[in-house]
Each structure stands twice: as structure tokens, then as C-alpha cells.
Design goal:
By secondary structure, the chain is of the alpha/beta class. It is built from 19 helices and 13 strands.
């Protein structure tokens, strides 16, 4: 008896290795049923093959296809699908049996959801500054997943806490969301609103963002329904002003997203972005998906300024018109009315109840970003040179010089990497040549172009490399 069991187990393992997948829908044989074998080791399930035949028959009926052409094609023979409906007529195969189903654990457990202060502590390790934004996100995410975990067990139904984050480019919007999804271990889909268009036009339709989330969840519908969708560049779908053309990527996209944000059942294709692909469709309910929208809203500051000046420009105590021109925290004074004036429709704003702003980065914040986060850029370069057994150090003055150059570029933290690459190029080119170099110190003079880095040879005094 034991020998037979072992033999079955070996056969089962071999069968696992040899399991066939459909070339079109990628479903395994265990789910899709027996496969049709084609040349070049291609397998197609009966569902996909039937869809292909239906498509061909449509062409036959329209008179656009010639049967003679089909019969004269090489390596093509007519296939009787009825034989696949009756497994008894198939040659005997060893069918693999699942030994035991994996113990399904609940997707979210109320006890395992980290408290807001724990979420913020983790975000602090990766994101510098933005204290208010991190606090708001921590509380909103905690409340959202509490709502999902309890599944509204009583008559009081908790609303979704979708978010709208506003902040200049390079201030950490996408990075915050990525860190959050990693911490919660939930699938994350990042979509770009600029590619979305009204249904029926060229581009991605609105439901394609749910397809991306399903792909991120490995086509597990239940896991996808508890994921996070981050829609970046949301300001690009604002209503266009003074245009006579049809606005297929502005207000129409906002209108199409309303049901998605609120919660609706969406049919999305498995393993493809387009419903026209010959792949099975699954229904995903967006009721428990957390939507986070982010954008730079470049002209929003002028709208806020105009509103504030209008309020404070009448009477004896009127303020100067240029009072708000250099206010670094002007975005924090944003109201729903300002976002509406920008071009977002009221129904859309109403489905994003949590609105918060991120600050622009100052020189001191950029210096901290360079050296403090867990995966700071300086730590990455130090690790790269440590692999060549060379120690890399940066003087404080050099860090401030790099931050000052980054501020001039006006692209936020993204500029730091580009500047460092420029100055580290020669150093990283020369170091593998010379095994005697033991330490390199980046100085302020080197960054400003008045000198060079300090190089110390192994076992010698530090010398300055001109």
C-alpha cells in the first residue's frame, strides 16, 4: 500500500511539472479542461478555440472568407470539438488531483491592521517631512481597512475614505502610496489619468485601471477587491476651458469614474487591458477598493491667490496684493471651491472626501532626503562603492550644494539623482582602475566646480585629487 501511494505521489509531481497552459487565456489544464495541441508546442483550451471558430464563421456568413483557402493552408486540419466534450473517448491520461486545498486565510483581519501611529512610523522611515500628509493617510487607510474587515456588520454603513492629494512634482506623492501598499501587503495599481479617455475613443477606458489592479493581485478577484488604486496626474482630466472640440479626456472621464469611485461591479478581462481580447471576463466589485488620486494642479496657487486677494482687498484693512506671492504654504489654504474652479466637477470632488496637500521641498528637506531614509540615494552609492571595497563620504557642505542645485531645477527630489549621477560618473569610472584607492570624500568645492574630491589611498594620508 505504501509503495502504491509513493508511486502516485511521484506521478502527481511529474504531472504538475507537465501541466499545460492555454496559449490565449493562460488558464491551466486543471481549470480550462483538456487542451488542443497545435504545432510548436502550443496548447489552446476549447473555450478559446470555440471563440476563434465563432469569429471565423461570422466571416464565412458575411462572405468575406473562402473555405478553399482554409483547406489549402499547411498544417491546418479541421478539429472535432465534440470529442472533447466526452472525456471517455480521449486516450487515458493520469489526471492530477489536488492533495488538499490551501487553508484559505482571510484577506484582512481586524487584529492585523496596523494602528495609525504604526503606519506613520513606517512612512517616517522612507519619506522625509510631509507630517500632515502622512498623518491624514495613516488615519484614512486605517479607517478604510477597518470598514473592509468588519464588512459593515451592523446597520450603520461606513462610507469609503477615498483621498485626493495635491502637491508639486517630486514631493513624494507616488512614493507615499507605494510605501503604504508595501506596508499593508495589499495589491497596488498605479494608473496615469492622462491616458484615460471616454469609452469608444482611442486610449485606455476608465475600467482599465481595475484591470491593472487585478493583474497586480495575480488575477485573484477577492484580493484585488481589497487593493489600492492610485490615479496619478488627476489634474490633467480637468474640464477644458474655452474649447469647442469634444472633450474626451476631461470632464467625460470624470463622469465615467463616478461609479467606480463610489462602488460598482465592473467586468474586466483576465490578463489583458482590452475587453476586445479573446479572454474570459471576471466581475470585480470596487466597493472596497481604496482610490487615491494625486496631482500637481499647477495653476491652483493662482486660483487660491485670487480668492484670498478678493477677500482681503476691500476696506481700510486691505492687504497688499503681493502678500501671498511668496507664501510657501499657500497650497494648504485650498478649498473645495478652488478645486472646482480649477476644472474638477462637484460630483467627482464629492467622492474624494479626504483632501490634503503636500509641501514643496526646501533645501534642508532635500539634504535630509539625500541621507536619512532607509534607501537614501547616498546609501545606495555608498553600497555600490563598498562592493569595490572603497569608502564614500559626503561633506555637509557638499550636500547643501547638491540640494541648492536641485532646487534650481524645480523638479523636487527627482533632481537629486540626476545631479549625483553627473558628479559620481568620473569617480565610479576611475575607482575600478586603481586598487589603491581606499576612501573618497565629496567636497563642496567639487560640487561647485572649484576643486576635486578628496581621495585617500589605502594605508596613507588623505590627499586631494585635482
Amino acid at each position: 500500500m505504501t509503495d502504491n501511494y509513493n508511486d502516485d505521489e511521484v506521478i502527481d509531481q511529474e504531472e504538475k511539472k507537465q501541466e499545460k497552459f492555454c496559449f490565449l487565456c493562460r488558464r491551466p489544464e486543471s481549470k480550462a479542461g483538456p487542451m488542443i495541441e497545435l504545432p510548436n508546442n502550443i496548447h489552446i483550451c476549447t473555450d478559446c478555440m470555440q471563440k476563434s471558430f465563432n469569429s471565423m464563421n461570422q466571416q464565412f456568413n458575411d462572405g468575406k472568407f473562402n473555405y478553399a483557402d482554409l483547406m489549402n493552408m499547411p498544417n491546418v486540419s479541421m478539429i472535432d470539438l465534440s470529442s472533447f466534450q466526452n472525456p471517455g473517448q480521449q486516450p487515458k491520461k493520469i489526471h492530477k488531483k489536488k492533495k488538499e486545498e490551501k487553508a484559505e486565510k482571510p484577506v484582512l483581519d481586524l487584529k492585523n491592521i496596523p494602528a495609525p501611529h504604526k503606519i506613520k512610523e513606517t512612512l517616517d522611515q522612507y519619506v522625509i517631512g510631509q507630517e500632515k500628509a502622512k498623518k491624514v493617510m495613516s488615519v484614512a487607510v486605517y479607517n478604510h481597512y477597518k470598514r473592509v474587515a468588519t464588512d459593515t456588520m451592523d446597520e450603520i454603513e461606513i462610507e469609503k475614505s477615498n483621498m485626493l492629494m495635491i502637491g508639486p512634482t517630486g514631493c513624494g506623492k507616488t512614493y507615499l502610496v507605494k510605501t503604504l501598499a508595501k506596508l499593508l501587503d495589499v495589491p497596488l495599481a498605479i494608473a496615469d489619468a492622462t491616458s484615460l479617455t471616454e469609452a469608444g475613443y482611442i486610449g485606455d477606458d476608465i475600467e482599465s485601471v481595475v484591470s491593472k489592479l487585478l493583474a497586480a493581485a495575480d488575477n485573484d478577484v477577492e484580493r484585488a477587491e481589497h487593493g489600492i488604486i492610485f490615479i496619478d496626474e488627476i489634474d490633467k482630466i480637468a474640464k477644458k476651458k474655452n474649447t469647442n472640440q469634444r472633450d474626451v479626456s476631461g470632464e467625460a472621464v470624470q463622469q465615467g469614474m463616478l461609479k467606480l469611485l463610489e462602488g460598482s461591479e465592473v467586468e474586466v478581462p483576465v490578463g489583458a487591458n482590452s475587453k476586445n481580447a479573446m479572454v474570459p471576463l471576471v466581475t470585480v466589485n470596487t466597493r472596497n477598493i481604496l482610490f487615491i488620486c494625486g496631482g500637481a494642479f499647477p495653476d491652483l496657487e493662482n486660483i487660491i491667490k485670487e480668492r484670498l486677494n478678493k477677500q482681503a482687498s476691500i476696506g481700510f484693512y486691505a492687504d497688499l496684493k503681493d502678500k501671498y506671492d511668496h507664501d510657501p504654504h499657500l497650497l494648504q489654504k485650498v478649498t473645495v471651491e478652488d478645486i472646482r474652479s480649477f476644472g474638477m466637477i462637484p460630483e467627482f470632488i464629492g467622492r474624494l472626501p479626504i483632501i490634503f496637500t503636500l509641501d514643496g521641498l526646501s533645501e534642508d528637506m532635500l539634504v535630509k532626503i539625500l541621507k536619512e531614509p532607509k534607501n537614501a540615494i547616498l546609501k545606495q552609492y555608498q553600497k555600490l562603492l563598498a562592493l569595490d571595497e572603497v569608502k564614500l563620504e559626503f561633506e555637509e557642505g557638499a550636500l547643501h550644494a547638491i540640494a541648492a542645485k536641485a532646487l534650481e531645477k524645480d523638479t523636487g527630489a527627482r533632481a537629486l539623482r540626476a545631479i549625483l549621477e553627473e558628479y559620481m560618473l568620473d569617480i565610479m569610472y576611475e575607482i575600478p582602475k586603481d586598487d589603491n584607492i581606499g576612501e573618497v570624500v565629496i567636497t563642496r568645492e567639487y560640487i561647485e566646480g572649484n576643486g576635486g574630491p578628496k581621495v585617500q589611498l589605502r594605508g596613507q594620508e588623505r590627499i586631494e585629487k585635482r
